[in-house]
Amino acid sequence: MRIEIVVFDGFDELDVFGPFEVLSMAGFDVALVAVERSGSVTSMRGVQLQLPEVLGPADGILVPGGGWLNRAAEGSWAQAQRGGLPERLSALAPSTRWMASVCTGALLLAAAGLLTGRRATTNRSAYDELRAHDVTVLDERVVDDGDRVTAGALSAGLDLGLWLTERELGAATANRVAATIEYRPQTLTG
């Protein structure tokens, strides 16, 4: 199963690397991909990545946040304002098994029209903005609404990775990964 985590200038590091670690450890084919063209991307705290691949068809797509709450010149808010990433997510949604988000990445899914009428979560400071997209906002670390799965702020990305692992590969695999990283999530059933 191929999972693409889309990264853009201003992304939050924990939103990306938390789920990346978990999903990779579980055995998924996970790739960090650029929005439109390969090349260099810089996180909100200055981590620089070289991305050889671009967002394309995948079994699962994960969208991080970063830079939404302070309306940063780069980050998820800037991506929503530009419109290219929401358009691409909307175009890819019918061909994916699921799309997921961490933190304010949910607002990018909402900007793409992919959370309308659904249950979701995001950073608590952005609940009202998410509700404005006709989303039922739940105060949970992970909200699974079928082909849309959202996680709350920052560290909830670990829970999201474990949730998706359990959903796709079973509780035993998710519990093995959780034990390996010495993390006790509140979301696993096994």
Distinctive features:
190 residues, alpha/beta, two-stranded antiparallel sheet, 35% helix, six-stranded mixed β-sheet
User: What percent strand?
Assistant: 15-25%
Topology pattern, helix = H, strand = E: EHEEEEHHEHEHEEEHH
Helix-and-strand structural type? alpha/beta
Q: How can the largest sheet be summarized?
A: 6 strands, mixed
Count of distinct strands: 10
Trace the largest sheet across and list its strands. 2-1-5-6-10-9
Uncertain residue ranges: none
Average pLDDT level: 96
Descriptive account of the structure:
It is a single chain. This protein is an alpha/beta fold and 190 residues long. 35% of the residues lie in helices and 21% in strands. The protein is built from seven helices and ten strands. The protein has a six-stranded mixed β-sheet, sandwiched between helices. It has a two-stranded antiparallel ribbon with strand order 3-4. A two-stranded parallel ribbon has the order 7-8. The longest helix has 14 residues, at 13-26.
